[in-house]
Please model this.
Amino acid sequence: MGQSSYNVQLGEVFEGPMDLLVYLVKKNDIDIYDIPIAVVTEQYLGCLELMKELSLDVSGDFLVMAATLMQIKSRMLIPAAQDNEEDEGAEDPRMDLVQPLVEYLRLKSAAEQLSHISLLDRDTFVRDVKEDSIEADVTFKPLRPVGLFELIDAFQRILKNASKEHFVDITKDAISVRQRISELMEILEERKNVTFQELFLGKHSKKMLIVTFLAILEMIKLRLIRVMQHIDSGIIRIYAGQS
Amino acid sequence: MLDSLRPIIESLIFVADEPLSIKQLEAMLGGVSRQQIKDILQQLMAEYETEKRGFALQEVAGGYQFRTRPEYRDWVIKLKQSSPAKLSRAALETLAIIAYKQPVLRTDVEHLRGVDSGGIFKTLLERDLIRVMGRKDLPGRPMVYGTTRRFLEVFGLKDLSSLPTLGEMEQLEESWPSVSKSS
Amino acid sequence: MLDSLRPIIESLIFVADEPLSIKQLEAMLGGVSRQQIKDILQQLMAEYETEKRGFALQEVAGGYQFRTRPEYRDWVIKLKQSSPAKLSRAALETLAIIAYKQPVLRTDVEHLRGVDSGGIFKTLLERDLIRVMGRKDLPGRPMVYGTTRRFLEVFGLKDLSSLPTLGEMEQLEESWPSVSKSS
Model:
């Protein structure tokens, strides 16, 4: 019991390796631009040990950071002078650590500030506008923008209940083809007909060429378009298909 | 607390779903007399009246509620008619299927949803979220549907290929299941 | 009409489901100048402020909305019998990174935080605080994320530029003691 509550606490404290690092820097009152890397590395590893002993879930992220620390530590041991190729510009290996750490601290402090803002539905509330206090007849309303997540959520609900035979192909490529069909339909709505070649103009990537071609094939299959070739010139022309 | 009693009562009436009765207020505030509450309510009502605000505190159905003034009724109706509506769950589901499966037949959509969707198709067409892309070469030449440019606008998408794949969404779900619940 | 412009605007904001923008008001009122509307809004905001009412007029997400005063939050929560909406520290951190760095990839956020953040992304998407803005032209066309209008509403921000400025390291060091308390 005692251990599990401790468990939760520590998990809260060290969300990730950056958090642990920040804790160590603060605890030792370290100048962030002059981190005693040996000390910090030792303490970091010590903390990992402790977390393991407490049977906390030490994720891979913590180990990656441990490796980075040890690497920086070993690079620090090589005297800068030996780096004669670029002995002047020899960079402090600790910079690899300092830059992300500074960035992390800045954003962490921004998050702190955000948490002090009066949050809607925590500190401040809006009126739940009920029609009975307005007595207005509401007819046709324009649409409110919808979150994409709601759309995906709706689709996932459907798929959960659908049988396997209605399997839907929604890989990235399939979506690209759909997008291209939509674009081609728009072109045809505007211009009624277009040459085959034109549709490939400006599509330089191999993928786009293939996607365009697949889109045309799919549209032919669905009879969304008709394709004709001129006998003399050989030019292939595509027509909107609602004949 | 006496000093802030007035704004507290005001804020409570403001957020309440229904007219708030003196009894309810008494129970909420604990230790404040009925008469005190009554006095404050009278005071507030008079204030909103004399100051000619856009809404007033009114006694309705045994409680107190803020309501717009009848003289601004036409303005309110105008706003309400121009304010955006939300898509129903059924409409969203239908739209999702069309977005991911287009070009698609109505029968295919109905098969997946397991219900007749004629009414919803009509609404989505009226709202310019879907469109007829053409007719399929099948008996009866059924119409093939797809989404519109307006659809992209409503969902804040650059193009259809920005639609997340289901795989991508599942990825989000898989990682860190323990934390996602608490956060 | 000029005389009643103030209560009309007040009543419109009162009945709107979402923050009402000056542009919307302009379109509704027809023939009233932007500056006039602005002036009245400023007047109203100042009034609610000095009169210490239970709610106040606030500028959020590019519009204006009445909201209860934070000092009465405990009373409102008691009335609503709801648990206040909370964001975990991890969610807040992730949200801050997305807000300041948008449009941003999930991998970039994870790189900064040093931990997998898929679960948190899903929660933030569900709560409509962040959204998929599109895809980046990189191998695999990864999705880029940004904050939503709802984010501005929840945090009571006028727009993204009213986010608190990111402090420099020197300032941060001064505030460290407070940071260490929370960890």
